[in-house]
Design brief:
Layout (H helix, E strand, L loop, with lengths): L1 H22 L12 H8 L1 H12 L3 H8 L7 H17 L12 H13 L2 H20 L1 H16 L14 H21 L5 H19 L5 H27 L10
Helix pairs in contact: 1-2, 1-3, 3-4, 3-7, 5-10, 5-11, 6-10, 7-8, 7-10, 8-9, 9-10, 9-11
Length: 256
């Protein structure tokens, strides 16, 4: 019942905000002062739902504490955090177009923008609430894939408006989301339920995608197509890492 309540509340909050964005022309860009609050509410649907339900269950402090839980994060998880940006640096010489100069201020702004309009608004819900309730029955890997499927569906309305997501071929985006879900789920599992790695891996993925435009991958499909193989391999390595360090196969019916 808690899972159904979480899904209903997450999608409900996000879809109401999305309806306002589509109905109000001035709200269609998150870069405008009028539009930003609507985009924030839409993106924060999962985390707001998790906070509301956790507060009702008397576990809000515990949920928020796991966002900054650092001590349980092992060193291999930091490699998962760094991997997306490292990939961009490796692929930089192979970009199809010329690079565009970036100032430190622009990079910091990109990081801050992606942090607020992304992982902070989602990961308390997707990994901190939903995955933690699915994993005991399904296993961490199956739970990660289920969360990834739900995460993909939650994004789909963005293909009905003029958004950055709509410029990406949906099959490519779907492949990426499922890979991200496995990688983030692995980091979350290896870190004993800390939400911090989920936030940072999600942020690293988003920042790498944003910087790819300046690195010469101006067509989003060129970046998403080129990098998909890497994320697929990284997701397999993440699965192997969890099995090696914890002995968890990731599927409930396989046992430990």
């Amino acid at each position: 019942m808690n899972i159904l309540a979480f899904l209903a509340l997450s999608f409900g909050i996000s879809l109401v905000a999305f309806a306002c964005i589509t109905a109000l022309p001035a709200a269609r860009s998150p870069e405008s002062a009028f539009g930003l609050p609507f985009w924030l509410i839409m993106v924060w649907g999962p985390s707001l739902a998790a906070m509301v339900l956790s507060a009702r269950e008397g576990q809000l402090a515990e949920l928020l504490g796991r966002v900054v839980q650092l001590s349980s994060v092992p060193w291999p998880v930091w490699a998962l955090v760094a991997a997306p940006v490292a990939l961009l640096l490796v692929l930089l010489p192979f970009a199809p177009e010329a690079t565009t100069a970036l100032s430190p201020g622009l990079v910091l702004g990109l990081v801050a923008f992606n942090l607020v309009l992304g992982p902070l608004g989602e990961e308390l819900g997707w990994r901190g609430y939903l995955q933690d309730r699915l994993a005991p029955e399904l296993g961490w890997l199956v739970a990660s894939l289920v969360v990834g499927g739900i995460w993909l569906v939650w994004h789909l309305p963005l293909w009905t408006i003029d958004s950055p997501h709509a410029q990406i071929a949906l099959p490519l985006f779907a492949g990426h989301v499922l890979c991200y879900a496995v990688i983030i789920g692995a980091g979350h599992t290896l870190s004993g339920g800390s939400i911090l790695p989920a936030v940072l891996i999600h942020l690293s993925v988003n920042v790498a995608s944003g910087l790819a435009i300046f690195a010469g991958f101006r067509d989003p499909n060129s970046w998403f197509g080129t990098s998909l193989w890497f994320y697929a391999v990284l997701s397999l390595l993440a699965i192997g890492l969890v099995v090696h360090r914890t002995g968890q196969a990731g599927a409930g019916w396989l046992g430990s």
